[in-house]
Amino acid sequence: MHTDMIEAILDAPLADRPWSPLFPALNRLAGGMRCMIRFAPSRMPQHDLILTNEDDSPSGLVQMYREEYCHKDPVSYEGLVPGNLYGFDDLIDRSTLSRSEFYQDFCKPFGMHHAFFSYLGRFDGVDAWLNGVRDRPFQPREWGDLKAAQPFVSTAARYFVRMQGLGRVANALGQACDHLGAGVVLVDSRGRIVDCNVEARDILIDAGIGVAHGGPLRLPSEGAGFLSDVLDNGNAHAAKRITAFECLGHPVHVVARRVEQSALRLATEPAAVIHLRREQHDIPADAIERIAAHFSLSQSEARLCLLLANGLSLVESADQMGLTVETARTYCKRAFAKTDTTRQSELIRLILNNMPLLTKTQH
């Protein structure tokens, strides 16, 4: 296959409309096709994602198939081997297909007389398929080209699934940090802002610090040398803390940690993560209510959990709640028992992972 064809396939998941470049690329191999790529979680196949070159075909074919013809489809798609290419004749007797209501009422009116089917594989629990249909038979050269493209489409599908998974995790954690009032800033190796969440932006703006994407993170007073020290001398296994500046009269605590970078060392790749927290941050009452109800915690236990998730130590949390450290430790142990966790890190991770879901249920 030509290099430009391979590049078009591998770049397809990264397009503004993901996968849209794939369909014209495939039609360069075998023209006149309506194509579809489908992703479905193996345990919940009904929650699938289907992408087509719908702009080039009658609208609503996928919906029509699902609502009226899926249960009439006589073709069995089970047992397809990844990397192989299958036609109608490989999966069902042609005469049986031609006599079926599915073919007569759905395939024939839209010129879907010939097809190829490919199971791309299972990636992180998600199954992926590719198929194309058209009105005329595939020639041997076209079939060979389509088969040669399958490994590259499979590789692109694997990347796509993993990117989708990473994106969901990052989005969930970002929502949790926003809700808990934790500011997070990512900076590159030169101290330039790669990204930040809403709370971090608010803290920095309130403190008169610029937050332009790609611009330098200029922490005032001791913070400037602190950030340089983290970038130059820090490691990915140790966090450094400092009370760097004031925001609306309240001290802002800064925790910074270097992150391990890829071998490529991309210019926009995060080199450090900076956590910002206002000292006088109050946990929202509705957040306490939701956590308490979800995990059957008392109000005090839920507030302690949220303070810990907000970056406070057990001693700091006890002080903010007006408790002794021993009482706070007792609340923490009760929370462990009720949430089936054994360490603060597990408890914090559980709280952060559930906050976005609990927030959604309230809207």
Could you give a short description of this structure?
The protein contains 14 helices and 10 strands. It has 363 residues and is of the alpha+beta class.
Major beta sheet, specifics?
5 strands, antiparallel
Please name the CATH architecture of the largest domain.
2-Layer Sandwich
What is the total tally of β strands?
Answer: 10
Protein structure class: alpha+beta
Classify the beta-strand content into a percent band. 15-25%
Question: What is the helical fraction, as a range of percent?
Answer: 40-55%
Class of the largest domain in CATH? Alpha Beta
Give the secondary structure arrangement, pairings included.
Layout: H1 3-11, H2 22-29, E1 34-41, E2 49-52, H3 61-69, E3 86-87, H4 88-91, H5 94-99, H6 101-107, E4 114-123, E5 126-134, H7 140-180, E6 183-187, E7 193-196, H8 198-206, H9 222-233, E8 240-247, E9 250-258, E10 272-278, H10 285-295, H11 299-309, H12 314-321, H13 325-339, H14 344-360
Any overview of this molecule?
The chain is 46% helix and 18% strand. β6 (183-187) and β7 form a beta hairpin. The chain has helices spanning 3-11, 22-29, 61-69, 88-91, 94-99, 101-107, 140-180, 198-206, 222-233, 285-295, 299-309, 314-321, 325-339, 344-360, and strands at 34-41, 49-52, 86-87, 114-123, 126-134, 183-187, 193-196, 240-247, 250-258, 272-278. The protein folds into three domains: 3-168, Beta-Lactamase; 182-278, PAS domain (Beta-Lactamase, 2-Layer Sandwich); 285-360, Arc Repressor Mutant, subunit A (Orthogonal Bundle), CATH 1.10.10. The chain is elongated. By secondary structure, the protein is an alpha+beta fold.
